[in-house]
Design brief:
The protein is an alpha/beta fold. The protein contains 10 helices and 9 strands. It has helices at 8-11, 56-71, 73-84, 105-117, 130-136, 173-179, 190-193, 206-212, 217-233, 241-246, and strands at residues 15-18, 24-26, 32-34, 93-96, 122-127, 145-150, 166-170, 182-183, 198-201. The strands form 2 sheets. Strands 1-4-5-6-7-9-8 form a 7-stranded parallel sheet. Strands 2-3 form a two-stranded antiparallel sheet. It is globular and about 55 Å long.
Length: 253
C-alpha cells in the first residue's frame, strides 16, 4: 500500500503528501471521529470538504489512513518508516496533512519519531494544535521539520504573531497585500520557508467564500469567540450572529 501520494497542486512542486479525512465523520465500522479537534471557523470553509476530497474512493482512502493510525499506530509507523527509506524521498519534501491535523498526542509523537529516524527527508505541516506543539514539538523540534500555525481554530488566542510563524486565510490576494502579509500562492513551501506573516488566498469555492463574507479567518474566529463569550456572560438566552454563521461542528459528513 502506497502511503504518500502527490495531489495535483503539490505534484508540480515535487512535494509528497499524507492525508487524513477532513474534520469529523464516521468510519465504515460506525465509529465517529474528529481529526481536527481544534477546528474553528475553518471547518465551515475547508477546501478539503469539497471537490475531489468528497469522491467516494478518495474519502475511503483517507478514512482507511485514519483507521490504521487509530487501530495500529506502531504498525502504521513502521510502514511509514519503510516507505520513507526509498531513495525517492532523499531530500524530498513531505507535507503532513493536506487534509486533517495531528488529532492526538500519540499520533503527533509517532510522526516526530518518524522525522528523527528519516532525517534525509524534509517534513512540513500547517496545524491548529497549538497546545500539543507547545508541549511536544517546540522544546526539541526535529531539525527536518517546519510548521506554521494557521488561524481559524479554537486555539487562536494562544498565538503570538510576533514570535509564532502564523498563516491566515484572506479573501483574496489583494487583501493579503493590503494587510502587509506575504502570500504563499506561488509555492506552498513559502508557508514555512518564506517571509512572515503568511497570507493564504481563499479557494475560489463560491459557498465557502460566501460564508467567509470578506473576512480573514482570524477575524471571523475572533468574532465567533467574542459572541460565545458574550452569550456565556449573559443571564438569559441570546442570539449570536457569529455563532449563526459558524453553525454546529457536529457534522458527520
Amino acid at each position: 500500500m502506497t502511503l504518500l501520494r502527490q495531489n495535483r497542486e503539490l505534484k508540480r512542486l515535487g512535494i509528497w503528501n499524507w492525508s487524513l479525512p477532513a474534520f469529523a465523520g464516521k468510519l465504515p465500522d460506525g465509529r465517529n471521529y474528529n481529526v481536527c479537534p481544534s477546528a474553528g471557523v475553518c471547518a465551515k470553509a475547508c477546501y478539503a470538504r469539497n471537490g475531489t476530497y468528497l469522491f467516494p474512493q478518495v474519502k475511503a482512502r483517507h478514512q482507511e489512513n485514519l483507521r490504521w493510525t487509530m487501530d495500529d499506530l506502531p504498525g502504521w509507523q513502521q510502514a511509514m518508516l519503510d516507505e520513507l527509506s526509498h531513495k525517492r524521498f532523499v531530500d524530498a519534501w513531505v507535507r503532513i496533512h493536506d487534509s486533517g491535523d495531528f488529532y492526538s498526542r500519540a499520533y503527533l509523537s509517532a510522526w516526530l519519531e518518524i522525522m528523527r529516524a528519516r532525517q534525509r527527508t524534509r517534513f512540513y505541516a500547517y496545524t491548529k494544535e497549538v497546545a500539543a506543539f507547545r508541549e511536544l514539538v517546540e522544546p526539541n523540534p526535529p531539525r527536518n521539520f517546519w510548521w506554521v500555525y494557521s488561524y481559524g481554530g479554537t486555539q487562536d488566542s494562544a498565538l503570538d504573531p510576533s514570535t509564532d510563524r502564523v498563516a491566515d486565510v484572506f479573501p483574496d490576494e489583494q487583501s493579503i497585500t493590503d494587510a502587509g502579509w506575504h502570500s504563499q500562492e506561488d509555492s506552498d513551501l513559502l508557508a514555512v520557508l518564506g517571509p512572515t506573516p503568511v497570507g493564504i488566498p481563499a479557494n475560489n469555492i463560491a459557498h465557502f467564500k460566501a460564508r467567509q463574507a470578506g473576512r480573514r479567518w482570524s477575524r471571523w474566529q475572533a468574532g465567533v469567540d467574542a459572541a460565545r463569550a458574550a452569550r456565556r456572560a449573559s443571564p438569559g438566552p441570546t442570539s449570536a450572529a457569529g455563532d449563526t454563521q459558524l453553525g454546529t461542528f457536529a457534522d458527520p459528513r
